[in-house]
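User: Can you predict the 3D structure for this chain?
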Amino acid sequence: MTNLNSLTVVELKRRLREHGAPVSGNKPELVSRLEKFQNEIFLSIEEDETEKETQDVVSEKLEIGCPLCGVKLRYPSNYFGNLNCPSCGRSFKPATSEVPTKTPIGGILFLSSIGVFLLSLMLAMLLEEPCDGGLGCAYSDSAMIMIGGVLISAILFGLSVIYTLATMMMKK
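Assistant: Here is the predicted structure, written as structure tokens:
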């Protein structure tokens, strides 16, 4: 049988989740909570598998630099909490693949401006009416659609440029 105190907090929490038990608290609380299920756990998992899983969890470490001082920190790949830098004391949340990244709003605005322009161009071409070349041609439905589409497209493009520049300035 494996000594529960020798397991990592991640492994203890994984085992508690298997039993539907709460996973909050420090390591001694987790160990005492898990001791209730100890006989069940070791009947369902052979000791060799337990040691192998524990080694896998330990070997899967990620490395990240502290955003304030740049010290390299290593943490388990399945860790979701905040990291505390021992050098500067800053607490920060590491980016993981499970955490969705921010939507690139500038890119969405830019692509929307292109889409609106192309859509207005296609609608203007579909609704184009024959014109005799007089002043009334400037106020036809297709001309108004094209002017409106270009105006909306220009506004969206301007917003995308402003947003991107503001984001770049805030990162500096």
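Helices lie at 9-18, 27-35, 38-44, 47-59, 105-126, 141-171. Strands lie at 61-65, 72-76, 83-84, 91-92.
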